[in-house]
Specification:
The protein is an alpha/beta fold. It is built from 11 helices and 11 strands. It folds into 2 domains: 200 residues, Alpha-Beta Complex (2-enoyl-CoA Hydratase, Chain A, domain 1); 47 residues, Lyase 2-enoyl-coa Hydratase, Chain  A, domain 2. The strands form 2 sheets. A 7-stranded mixed sheet has the order 1-2-3-4-6-8-11, sandwiched between helices. Strands 5-7-9-10 form a 4-stranded mixed sheet. Helix 3 runs parallel beside helix 4. The radius of gyration is 19 Å and the shape is globular.
Length: 261
């Protein structure tokens, strides 16, 4: 199965969707690209054949930021707010998906690119990848969720340092901060992301979906409300065929054969 858009394309293989942005030279995010991404993820969300999504960039960059010409063309506060609504709506959709989304980051991950990566549920980086939010150098600040999501991942102090200086950080520092899950050689970024996706695909998908639900929704609540949500969904799993199969397989020392029910 394959689908091609102007700048966004995807294919599905073995229950994994591989989404690629190809907007030379640096995969900048324009209004049109955001809308293409939104439409692509709508389709992936509705496709029962897709269990995990991997997002990557062609060329030298993952995504090197928003299209500066688009930002320069913004006339007034009303126009800016309309643009921001598109950014937030698209990125919120990805973050709220109950199918894991993995960012495969091989090069520059800057500005809107980092904001995009932050809504992905996991991030695999090449050893030469660079991360940053340099918008302050343009007289603005990150406006696609960076001021809210970055502090929640790396902490307030480091996020403010990155936002207020515009300095980049290396893949190794990103790993130490918990911004990425893995750092791998440059030529192994996609294969490492694929290996991670294959591990997830091999598990019972009811448990995967419920775990996603509990983590995503639980983080919006206080701890004790989150624990109640956890208890509710854990109880639901106890009545599934996959739970019975998983425990039987463990006791019988064999690989489970999940049926996602």
């Amino acid at each position: 199965m394959a689908m091609a858009e102007q700048r966004i394309s995807y294919k599905v293989e073995n229950r994994i969707a591989y989404v690629t942005i190809n907007n030379p030279p640096m995969n900048a995010l324009s209004r049109e690209v955001f809308l293409e991404i939104e439409e692509t993820f709508k389709k992936l969300e509705a496709d029962d054949a897709v269990k995990v999504v991997i997002f990557s960039g062609e060329g030298r960059a993952f995504i090197a930021g928003a299209d500066i010409r688009m930002l320069q063309a913004v006339k007034d506060a009303k126009d800016s707010k309309q643009l921001t609504v598109i950014f937030h709506r698209t990125l919120n959709r990805i973050e709220e998906m109950r199918k894991p989304v993995i960012a495969a980051i091989h090069g520059y991950c800057l500005g809107g690119g980092l904001e995009f990566a932050l809504v992905c549920h996991m991030r695999v980086a090449g050893e030469k990848a660079q991360f940053g939010v340099p918008e302050i150098k343009l007289g603005v600040f990150p406006g696609a969720g960076g001021t809210q999501r970055l502090p929640r991942v790396v902490g307030k102090a480091k996020a403010l340092e990155m936002i207020l200086t515009g300095d980049f950080i290396s893949a190794q520092e990103a790993l130490a901060l918990g911004l990425v899950n893995q750092v791998v050689p440059q030529d192994q970024v996609l294969s490492a992301a694929r290996a991670l996706a294959e591990k997830i695909v091999s598990k019972g998908q009811l448990a995967v979906r419920y775990a996603m639900e509990v983590v995503i929704e639980g983080l919006k609540k206080d701890l004790y409300s989150g624990l109640e949500l956890e208890a509710e969904y854990f109880a639901r799993l106890c009545e599934t065929e996959d739970r019975a199969e998983g425990m039987a397989a463990f006791l019988e020392k064999r690989e489970p054969k999940f049926k996602d029910r």
